[in-house]
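Progress report, Aim 2. The chain analyzed during this reporting quarter is listed below.
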Amino acid sequence: MNLIRENSLTTLQNPKESNLNTRNSYQLHINQFNTWNQSESITPDRIQSYLSYLKIKGDRSATIRIAKSALKKGIKQSLPGKANNLAFLSVLDTVFKEMKVDSTKYSLNESAVLSRKEISTLCKNTPKKLSLMIKAFYNSGFRVSELTRIRIKDCFVSNDSLAITIIRKRGKEVTIQNAFPIKLYEAILKTFHSEFIKPKDYLFKNLRSINGYYSRQFLWQEINKYSRRILGKNYSVHDLRHSHASSLLLAGEKIPAIALRLSHEDISTTAKYYLHAQLNPKTLNKVFIN
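Predicted structure tokens for the chain:
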């Protein structure tokens, strides 16, 4: 069934989102879809083909879900006459629910890990605030929601060490010792805050957001954009977490310690991602019997 029987919809307008970061993210996805669609009639099959194209292209499930949400809101924005049509909205909801986005079967490889040198290069060539956030992600191994929701009152400096209390998955509260260097923490305070620092303010305060913090979509977009421009490869925010864990492993830390740092409930999760077991040919030669 065509979503727009009375209208031949061939391009989508950008949704009017109140949050600037969300608006920019949706605009990016809408523009990419319009370029791909080439003024073809927009139908459920056409949208499903686009989502499949994103999957084949290598986009992750989370990214495709954001694109799916942007397209749905773009259709509503492009058909203002149907904004209050309950029958149409019901059909639209049903159609988009039937468009499934399979979870990415993620297995970490070297291409998803940035070296310390690559991180330094990236940070030297990005805007100051983004650079500080990249350093914080890499040094802590925090997830996006964990880092962006840190409030100043959650940070404790003692004996030249910074401890940060964060909310992990399923609402679990944990305190991470030596989260990242105190020097970095001080630079963050100086850059993101004025002279009057309020304990309840987010550490990475975003004055342009109603919520007061940076959105997942904005960080994904910016880090992806700058990593592609500077390093020639697309990296995501989550790749910084993987890079943190992989760096610890290469430095000689044991899997149980890394699992604790990342708050993995099951140590096998850590082992699955970060133990890249490859047989050394020299070792095989010692074992082989001619």
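The first helix runs from residue 20 to 37. The mean pLDDT is 84. These observations will guide the mutagenesis work planned for the next reporting period.
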